[in-house]
Amino acid sequence: MKSKLIDDAKDYLVAIAGPVLYIFGVAGNSFVVIAVWKKRSLRSTTNCLLVNLAISDIVSFLFLPLMLVQSTPLNPDHFADFLCKFLISFHIPATANVVAILTVTLMSIERYHALVKPMKIRKRLQKDTIGHAVTGLWISGLLLTLPYYIFGQYDEDYLCCVVGKRTKGFIIYELIFLAVIVFVPFFITSFCYFQIVRELYFKNKVRPQNVPSAAEEDARDKRKLVKLSLSIISVFGLFMFPLFITLILKSIDDDTFKRYFQIAAAFFFVEAAVNPFIYTFQSTNFRQAFKEILKHPFCA
After folding, report:
1. pLDDT bucket at 182, cuts 50 / 70 / 90
2. Which of 92, 121, 152, 270 fits 85 for a cystine, CB–CB 3.0-4.6 Å?
């Protein structure tokens, strides 16, 4: 009885909050893409990475309604396997999610080289190489999640999509994959921002006497950019860690932790919808661009 009440409450919550989250997520992240596309002044390497982050969030949202079909029984045939591999399972959102993690990590490395090692220009992303970097991120995301597409299938006994039939080998792969995709980026990002904060806030630097205002303005701009990046990464980590922890636990015991995974997955989509609001509150340039889009939505 209690379990049924919880399931009913969850269904009502999904029915009410799901469409709102979907609209805000797709619209908000689309605004980010359009803003950078329309305003030439926003086309920095960091903002191009923010666009890639927004696109990965949009991809996740576009497949969210299809994932609700998983609970619908299908005819056990090759078409059902195809649906489970590519459309109604979490595989494409998982790829987009991995791309988002790699994008955030690359953003941290880029900020580190720009602010801590500014003289090493060759190690920084340039406008003519950012496209190659983004392509590499999506290829890497696809390769890392490829086993989900290969081993995804429709289970006739449980009448749902499964991956790898929960074999020991696949569980080991999943645990290694989750550990690598969570902890390695976490340590890289933590190191980069620790060094950045140390460089900007705690190192004593000699300021030029002839142009103090220019130096101070440059320092303020750098700190604003760091605050924006830190806000994005902090929110990303806050919402993503519960998802990955429950994924690891679900790999070990699927039946016990399946419900917790669903709750954590909902928080992931909340994070994807929140990002555009962070840009709005933290960045004057994005705020101005969003206002222009709302005033003149059909102007190129």
Report:
1. confident
2. 152
Q: Residue 75 phi/psi, 5° resolution?
A: -70, 125
Task: Report the distance separating Cα 281 and Cα 120, nearest Å.
Answer: 32
In a domain, 213, yes or no: no
Does a structural domain hold residue 88?
Answer: yes
| Separation CA 229–CA 223 (nearest Å) | 10
CATH code at 30? 1.20.1070.10
Distance CA 131, CA 125 (A): 10
Q: Name the pLDDT band for 53 (thresholds 50, 70, 90).
A: very high
Contact in structure between 35 and 290 (CB atoms under 8 Å)? yes
Cα dihedral 33, 100, 146, 241, rounded to 10, equals: -150
Question: pTM for this one?
Answer: 0.83
Separation between Cα atoms, residue 29 and residue 35, nearest integer Å: 10
pLDDT digits (tens, 9 = 90+) for 209-267: 555 565 666 667 777 777 777 777 787 777 777 777 777 777 677 666 666 776 777 77
Q: How many domains does the chain have?
A: 1
pLDDT at 91: 86
List the structure tokens of 250: 């679900």
pLDDT at residue 132 in the model: 93
Pairing between β-strand 152-155 and β-strand 160-163 as defined by DSSP bridges = antiparallel
The contacts of residue 192 (CB under 8 Å, 6+ apart) are: 108, 109, 111, 112
- 88 Cβ contact partners less than 8 Å away, ≥ 6 residues apart: 66, 67, 69, 70, 161
